[in-house]
Design brief:
The complex is a heterodimer of chains A (421) and B (175). Chain A has 421 residues and is of the alpha/beta class. Chain A folds into 3 domains: 26-150, Aconitase, domain 3, CATH 3.30.499.10; 153-227 and 250-265, Aconitase, Domain 2; 270-413, Aconitase, domain 3, CATH 3.30.499. Chain A is 30% helix and 17% strand. Chain A has 13 helices and 18 strands. Chain A has helices at residues 5-11, 38-47, 72-88, 100-106, 138-147, 172-188, 205-214, 229-236, 296-299, 302-312, 330-338, 341-347, 398-407; strands at residues 23-24, 30-34, 59-62, 91-93, 115-119, 132-135, 152-153, 157-163, 192-196, 222-224, 256-261, 268-270, 278-280, 291-295, 322-326, 350-352, 373-376, 392-395. In chain A, the strands form 5 sheets. In chain A, strands 4-3-2-5-6 form a 5-stranded parallel sheet, covered by helices on one side. In chain A, strands 16-15-14-17-18 form a 5-stranded parallel sheet. In chain A, strands 10-9-8-11 form a 4-stranded parallel sheet, with helices on one face. In chain A, strand 12 and strand 13 (278-280) form a beta hairpin. Chain B is α/β, with parallel strands linked by helices. Chain B has one domain: Alpha-Beta Barrel (Aconitase, domain 4). Helices cover 27% and strands 18% of the residues of chain B. The model of chain B has no long low-confidence stretch (mean pLDDT 92). Classes of the chains: A alpha/beta (421), B alpha/beta (175). Chains A and B meet through strand 1, helix 2, helix 3 and helix 5 of A and helix 5, helix 6 and helix 7 of B.
Chain lengths: 421, 175
């Protein structure tokens, strides 16, 4: 039988070849919990009365949601996680190291062909490295700690073919928002999205992480990029071996095949309060913006910060606009500092926040006020998402975010870019 | 957490619309605790502030498409369960909410087509995959659940299941 990428990856982790629709219990290669999901996982694991982790090397905990720690309650939860990791000998990334979804790829933990679970919905990010990355809950995570396995249904696969070269102002985020708007839940819910097409040669690893990160907003279980020269180049920095890239079999069975022409695409924006409420930026041009956030696991990477800086280098931030910049990891923070762009942002009136999830889900400082319009590079804009139900959240690219910071309004970034960008 | 599920559940319906997301079920600002009652105290707060006072033990929540979309927070199904909700019916669920609900022992039924109004008395038969509206006498069928999910629900959740068996059990020919 001819299999899709996800069928082949899961088959390699079971004792028999599997196909879509089957419920199986594969072993997993790595699982990550955050300070959002970890404490409950630890408590549930203790309730299971299984005393040892099946394999501590496969368990990672990251303190990224509440950075720095906002109060005594969370401080106790953080300490609980630190103590658990010490006791069980599993890896902990402490406050200020960065967001789990950035740290795992950045530190070489994600291997092509592997199954990586995260107790966080945006774990589909790891598909950028030809891995099966998917989100789970706290009970699942506790069960993975206990058994090294997960129950799951093998998803159907939807092939997404991306054709053409995007315009200079169209970033990976715009591409992702466009697909979220077009795909919707009917096409992608529970499915594995499998990317192919000549556009991929224009998407570097930062871009691919952005695209895969957003795909959970279509309801997809996972989103997987092919293994190619770009993957190989990215992985070469870790000198890692022993992984097994996975291609689909010729003639594999896809639930749907969907093509997107990207060459005539324009910058996209998600309007409140659903991620699939997508418009061209030009359609909402002029909407006032009070707060701009550049960061998160979607767009807190160096390329994103550099894109935003390319506009904010030459133009002043509009008075009264609150601008928050949140590098996704300490490494990115350092690189941005070395390149002078943190100072550039700061001189231009931005607040630089420590590496972490930032204000994305209202867990760390940066809560918008009543009636405020926020333009964020994050991945979700649900009512109340940032901690205030009376705020409105728009989602766009780092370029669109920077353009809004300059004008105080939703603005097509194309108007502000030099020809040589 | 939880006890064995009855095969049949009866309760009053509370009907909501499509795309009820996890931030609507339990806002992120209330999830930083292990005190489960906190989740119940703020359940559906931004969507329907009176729900937490109106809900009675055993009531059944009914949603439309894509129920539970958004974050992976297990606090979302926990908030509903601790508030007294005995089952959730929806046209379809977001996948992480669905598996989290099963894992904490909260029955979730996918029913693609139904006529249910708030206040209707419902009877849910998990094994048969059926929902009966006792108020109107109409019956609706639900997508059948794979065996492993029924076993986890039978034990009242994944914690009890693993406490009992020590590991996953899976018969072939499922799915």
């Amino acid at each position: 039988m001819n299999r899709t990428i996800v069928e082949k990856i899961i088959s390699n982790h079971c004792d028999h070849p599997v196909s879509a629709g089957e419920v199986v219990i594969p072993f997993i290669d790595l699982a990550m919990a955050t300070d959002g999901s970890g404490p409950l996982s630890i408590e549930l694991f203790q309730q299971m009365q299984i005393n040892e982790l099946r394999d501590p090397e496969k368990i990672i905990m990251v303190l990224d949601h509440y950075v720095p720690c906002p109060n005594d309650k969370v401080a106790r939860l953080h300490d609980m996680m630190r103590q658990f990791c010490k006791k069980t000998d599993c890896k902990l990334f402490d406050l200020g190291e960065g967001i789990g979804h950035q740290l795992l790829p950045e530190k070489g933990y994600i291997k092509p062909g592997s199954i990586v679970l995260g107790a966080d919905s945006h774990s589909c990010t790891y598909g950028a490295l030809n891995a099966l990355g998917t989100g789970i809950g706290s009970s699942d995570f506790a069960a993975v700690m206990a058994t090294g396995k997960l129950w799951l249904k093998v998803p159907v696969s939807v092939k997404i073919e991306l054709k053409g070269r995007p315009a200079k102002t169209v970033t990976a985020k715009d591409l992702a928002l466009y697909m979220v708007g077009k795909l919707g839940n009917e096409a992608a819910n529970y499915a594995s999205l499998e990317f192919c097409g000549d556009t991929l040669s224009t998407l570097d690893m930062d871009d691919r992480l952005t695209v895969c990160n957003m795909m959970v907003e279509t309801g997809a279980k996972c989103a997987i990029m092919p293994f190619d020269q770009i993957t190989e180049n990215f992985l070469s920095q870790f000198h890692s071996t022993g992984f097994q890239p996975v291609d689909p079999d010729p003639g594999a069975d896809y639930d749907k095949i969907i093509e997107f022409e990207v060459h005539n695409m324009v910058p996209q924006i998600a309007a409140p309060h659903q991620v699939d409420n997508i418009f061209a930026v030009s359609e909402l041009e002029g909407t006032p913006i009070d707060m701009v956030i550049i960061g998160t696991c979607t767009n807190g990477r160096l390329k994103d910060l550099l894109q935003a800086a390319s506009l904010l280098r030459e133009h002043q931030k509009a008075p009264g606009v609150e601008l928050l910049v949140v590098p996704a990891s300490r490494q990115i923070y350092s690189q941005a500092a070395q390149q002078g762009i943190l100072e550039l942002f700061s001189q231009n009136g931005a607040m630089i926040l420590p590496p972490g999830c930032g204000p994305c889900c209202g867990s760390s400082a940066g809560i918008p006020g009543d009636g405020k319009n926020v333009l964020s590079t994050a991945n979700r804009n649900f009512l109340g998402r940032m901690g205030n139900v009376n705020a409105n959240i728009y989602l766009g690219s780092p370029l669109t975010a920077a353009a809004a910071a300059i004008t105080g309004k939703i603005t097509d970034p194309g108007e502000w870019l030099h020809d040589d960008f | 957490m939880g006890r064995k599920q009855n095969i049949k559940i009866t309760g009053k319906a509370h009907v909501y619309g499509d795309h009820i997301d996890t931030d609507a079920i339990i806002p992120g600002k209330y999830t930083k605790t292990l005190d489960l009652q906190t989740f119940a105290d703020h359940v559906l707060e931004d969507l329907d502030p009176e729900f937490k006072d109106r809900v009675q033990p055993g009531d059944i929540l009914v949603g439309g498409e894509n129920f539970g979309c958004g974050s992976s927070r297990e606090q979302a199904p926990l908030a509903l369960k601790v508030a007294g909700v005995s089952a959730v019916i929806a046209k379809y669920f977001a996948r992480i909410f669905f598996r989290n609900a099963v894992n904490i022992g909260l029955p979730v039924l996918e029913v693609s087509d139904f006529e249910i109004a708030t206040g209707d008395e419902l009877e849910v038969d998990l094994k048969a995959g059926a929902v009966e509206n006792l108020t109107t006498g109409r019956r609706f069928s639900a997508t059948k659940m794979p065996q492993v999910m029924i076993e986890i629900l039978d034990e009242g959740g994944l914690v009890n299941y693993l406490k009992k068996y020590g590991d996953y059990r899976l018969q072939k020919d499922e799915g």
